[in-house]
Write a structure and sequence with these properties.
It contains 13 helices and four strands. By secondary structure, it is of the alpha+beta class. It has a four-stranded antiparallel β-sheet with strand order 2-1-4-3. The N terminus is likely disordered.
């Protein structure tokens, strides 16, 4: 980072206390222009935040770190297009990001949200509900959501026990043991199932009972250690139920697509 820019960022905590004077001076025509595009970006960001700083004077650290993140997110954006974000989006986002500084995943979601809200080309894509959605997400939720959105197919199964009568292939009774088992294995099956439940609750994905016609998409789940162990533990129950599964799939919702494009994808 250029020395002048580094000094500028380091002085944010002090200047925020005298924001009205600072911004008044910064707008005077006698102020010397730095002249380099990269140096104009943080100054434009700082000016765009001038109307919001008063709401978060007790969040100096958060706003300082947020500006540093936004400097990176907006480095390729024409400074003339950097605008003040809507307060109903920016204020709760900045307040929330102060509690997420130790999570790269959540911090990145908030930073992308703010960057899109500060770009005149993308600000209309930002929905105020996105802030509340991020608040309800864990870092693991964020990682799993990103994986789902970046895959063409998202097969899942329910592990069930079925009871059959005679040679009829359709079960007369069924009991679900584990819902929404996927081939995503970055965490335990229990943790991932909880994450999927939360993503459904937030409206980012939905679960369809309709399976993929290409049954090979389910092979990774059916060959997983978890599935094999469950099957080996109890292939049959004493009352005549047989271990089995129901194939399903994850659907990407309109809200999920919009949230992904706004909060997960970086500005180009």
């Amino acid at each position: 980072m250029p020395q002048g820019l580094d000094n500028f960022i380091g002085a944010v905590g002090d200047t925020i206390k005298t924001a009205p004077t600072f911004y008044e001076d910064a707008l005077q025509p006698t102020v010397q222009e730095i002249g380099k595009f990269v140096a104009r970006v943080p100054r434009a960001i700082n000016a765009a935040f001038s109307g919001l700083d008063k709401w978060i004077l007790n969040r100096e650290y958060a706003i300082d770190e947020t500006k540093k993140l936004l400097e990176i997110k907006l480095e390729n954006v024409d400074p003339e297009k950097i605008v003040t974000p809507e307060a109903y989006v920016a204020v709760p986002a900045i307040q929330a990001i102060s509690y997420s500084m130790d999570s790269e995943e959540l911090r990145n979601l908030y930073a992308n949200l703010l960057a899109k809200a500060m770009n005149s080309d993308t600000k209309d894509q930002v929905h105020p509900s996105f802030v509340e959605i991020i608040k309800q997400m864990s870092p693991i939720d964020s990682r799993i959501f990103k994986m789902i959105m970046e895959r063409q197919a998202n097969p899942i199964i329910d592990i069930v026990y079925n009871k059959y009568e005679s040679d009829i292939p359709i079960p007369i009774e069924s009991q679900t043991v584990v819902e929404n088992v996927t081939d995503i294995d970055i965490e335990s099956v229990d943790t991932i199932c909880i994450c999927l439940d939360n993503l459904v609750k937030q409206g980012l994905i939905s679960i369809s009972e309709k399976s993929y016609t290409n049954v090979t998409l389910y092979d990774n789940i059916l060959k997983s250690q978890f599935y094999i162990i469950q099957q080996q533990k109890c292939p049959y129950t004493p009352d005549g139920f047989k271990f089995s599964h129901n194939k399903k799939r994850i659907i990407k919702t309109n809200l999920g697509n919009s949230f992904y494009n706004t909060c997960v994808i970086d500005l180009l």
